[in-house]
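Example 3.2
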Amino acid sequence: MDSNQTRYWVALNQVKRLGAVRFRKLENHFDDLGRAWVAGPRELHNAGLEDGIVSALVEARGRISPDDEMGRLEKAGVQALTWQDPAYPPRLKHIDDPPPVLYVKGTLLPEDERAVAVVGTRSPTTYGREAAAALSGDLARCGITIVSGLALGVDTVAHRAALTHEARTVAVVANGLDLIYPRDNANLSRQIAEQGAVVSEYPLGTRPDPRGFPRRNRLISGMSLGTLVVEAGEKSGARWTVYHALEQNREVFCVPGSIFSPASRLTNRLIQDGAKLVSSHMDILEELNLTVVTRQIEMRLAESLPPSPDAEGEADLLRCLDHEPTHIDDIGRSASLPIATVGSLLTMLELKGLVKQVGAMHYVRIGEATPTYGN
């Protein structure tokens, strides 16, 4: 969209309670929103706006300069996308209440349409952290963009897993992009903006408000093909993401947990109610019909890799595996290798189709026989 038009969308987006429905009324009534910005009260009423909204819009014109707002965005390194912009996420555009303006720090790409949301508690157990890291990392490695909310806990683990694999990740926040919340994730936010995008529907200067987080979660699910809940108690904020996902006809996936763990009460109940139980990233890819695409990505990646400098180590590692899941720590002990080395070798073996991660850092052997390396 022409920046001359965008500035009026940005200015109007600062009028409280204007919202998606009223933006559509303005679009339908006026040829462009520049005319709406300067329209008199009578014409605004004719467009379908109520008295209170008309008064708020007229008052806003006295204190807001569209040009100054665009200057603030440029200074903050933030791009504003309207739902008329080709770069606006297509899937998000079709939810019931899409934000008229989406603020972006970083870059949204067409491949981000192949996205999965990963959400959960801010206080995950060790099991929850391992599951979030393993599943998010495997999805990211398969070319899936990881969408989450930048919160502490599962969100942070999911974003970091994607970054570790140099993959795409998008953080959806409930504040203006000139602020960072939580402050502990300031560095993470910068990394996400460099390798993906941080997005918000809120104008610059908007401080986080508890009422904004449930609403923010509709964007997390709305940008994604499906939502994975790793760990969440019955009152976890993740339940709002699930509710929005169901309303948007998106898939819901859950990692099962201990019946004794409060952190798994919501996930276990959702599985009882019909959510897809997940023990491996392949459960998600198969449900979303993404296995063909991701296999093509993995094959291209495998072809681009140099020959393994430790082929003998791969063979030794395979001898420590069978068709029963084995944790990476146990594999390392059996092979007498450091965990970092084991992780690298397992990645190579996965790309060669000889082993498979089945969740929570457990691996199984899927090759028929140990390959012969050398003479």
